[in-house]
Amino acid sequence: MARTDSMMMPLGTPAPDFTLPDTVSGRSLSLADVAGEKATLVMFICNHCPYVIHVNDELIRLAHDYQPQGVGFVAISSNDVDNYPDDAPDRMTEVARQLGYPFPYLYDETQEVAKAYDAVCTPDFFLFDGDLKCAYRGQLDKSRPKNGEPVTGADMRAALDAVIAGEIIPDDVQVPSQGCNIKWKAA
């Protein structure tokens, strides 16, 4: 696993639109379909990454805690499934159902959505305000596999609370997420 830091989309950037298949419902969902009234969290994840596995339970807790407050959640996997079959859509469906993801788990087969967001690692988080402008991009919290820090979601929870309250999150408190690199298809 090659640890990669997120690229940190410029604050205020409009959320790139997308329409992707949801591996759980079988429907195609767009950004408008998953957007929340007050905020939207777009998460690039995958099944096999130890960084994602490490935070999965907190992602579920976050969704349960913040969806009732008007926050939309969506997870997207963009990995090359030919070389990483554990991340194939049928396995995505299996993992989402097994873990009880309370959010759609979309498959970005062409990897165009990951590129549009400048997503480079899993997990990579992009929080948008009610106008779908980037308000936070960065880490969930300080925990990483084997670093001994508890998974609390503290950074993301603070960002979500600020966005819901209409506050601006200063750039200097936004720390890049870290995780495995997205598994890009050969050119």
Automatic annotation (TrEMBL):
InterPro entries: AhpC/TSA (IPR000866), PRX-like1 (IPR047262), Thioredoxin-like_sf (IPR036249), Thioredoxin_domain (IPR013766)
Pfam family, one: AhpC-TSA
Annotated Thioredoxin domain residues: 9-165
Superkingdom of the organism of origin: Bacteria
Name of the molecule in the record: Thioredoxin family protein
Annotated source species: Spectribacter acetivorans
